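seq as requested:
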Amino acid sequence: MHVNMEKERIQYIDAMRGFTMILVIYSHVCVFCFKEYFIAFNDVLFLLRMPCFFFISGWLFYKATRVWDKTTVRQVIHNKFMVQIIPTFIFLALHERANFFHQLGAFKGGYWFTFALFVYFCIYIFSSIVFRRCRYKDWWMLLTAVVISVVTFWYDINYHRISGNMGLWRDALGFMGIVTWRYYLFFFLGTLAKRHFEKFLQLTDNKFGIIAICVLFLVMALSPRYDQLFPAYMRFALSGVCGMVMVFTFFRKFSSWFTKDRLVGRSLQYVGTRTLDIYLLHFFFLPESMLLYNRQMLAYDSKWLEVGVVMGEALVVLACCLIASYVIRLSPFLAHYLFGVKGK
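struct tokens:
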């Protein structure tokens, strides 16, 4: 069935976006509250969480009718700067206060996602312009995405070995967040999936293909972590691609669960339309006091207990973010400069 994606949002895509936002909070509860990376299957969810998020971001960014002339480029970059960069630095300054300038490295005190996303917009626009007259434009842009992903992944795993000889370049590349550019591959795949939506649906309709993708993801998830570039990158890329296809297929196949007529669908869609608000706010509501209960929870040695505790805390943090978002949005001025909301 053909869907006019330029004029209407697909409900299960918004629900999927809300789901991935919950996974982000879930992961940060593990890492920042319990100071544990491997609890509650977080190490497995890590393989698909950010790939899914960037895949959806690329999906939502792509518009078939958009032509990259000077006016459009200037307008889009300005709008994205106001939405992605200005709020990021405002919230980073509010959260870190005295440590603000010490948090301007690759991960921006946790606020790296929006900064990286702005960079992805710029890379995509630039590569679209460079390859617009090429016969195999999609393939050239895909190759560009892969090269950027591989090179920045290599830089990340070799950082401690080479950074000592880089001088000011180390700080410059850190501020640019170059180690996070490895996720650009998934952002581009999101634009590609929307551009060739019918073909992408054929892939997700292939039962044997989806089974193979699920098995491959499981193999990657269970495989050991490597320090060598090729096996480490293959684990990163394959698990990410398989994970985002799996999640997309699940939400599409069971799209009737995620409509606005159902509580689950309506709730996830609402979260999906507030992802920027939630991302910027949630660091303020992560309770460090949970560390006191870390040993007690781990003593039970039950992954499912860990999942219940972490998810429960994540949902509490989510609720706090939604309430704060609602209150802040009552002011058009704050809504505009903190969340990039356009004036009516």
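The chain is about 70% helix and 0% strand.
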